[in-house]
Structures are given as C-alpha cells and as structure tokens.
Amino acid sequence: MLDNFAILMTPPGSAAIAVVRFSGFDTRNFLAAHFSASCRELLPVHGLLRDNGRILDDCIAMLGPDAKWAELHVHGGPW
Fold this sequence. Notes:
By secondary structure, the protein is mainly beta. The chain has one helix spanning 27-34; strands at residues 5-8, 17-23, 45-51, 54-63, 69-75. It has a five-stranded antiparallel sheet with strand order 1-2-5-4-3, with helices on one face.
C-alpha cells in the first residue's frame, strides 16, 4: 500500500495557475470528500475545492489512470 503524498508541480510564488499532484491509496476518496464534481480518469473537471465546508478555490481536477494520482489546477499565489 502506498502512502498518501502531494507534490507542488509549479514553482512557489505568484502565478495564474498552480498545479498540485497527489498520489496514494486514498486519492479517489480525497477527491470525493473535498471536490464538488465527480472525477473520471484523464478528464479535467471544473468544480469547487472545499475543506470542512469552506470553499478554498474554484479549480480544475483530473484523476489519473487507475486513480493512482490526481492533479488539482488551482489559482496560484503565495497562500
């Protein structure tokens, strides 16, 4: 079983878009719990990223093959 982890795919700092890739056994469950739209493999989907009901961003998510990884394309910036 793989551990869950996340990697910032774009350099830190101000930018229009930041890409975060995450992977692990809980990838599909993370998206189901925190992303408002249903994700299918290799199909970018627009939705809301939430944490405890609070909207964090209006972004794009994409689930990788066999749900082994996913990417969140969020608005960039120092936060």
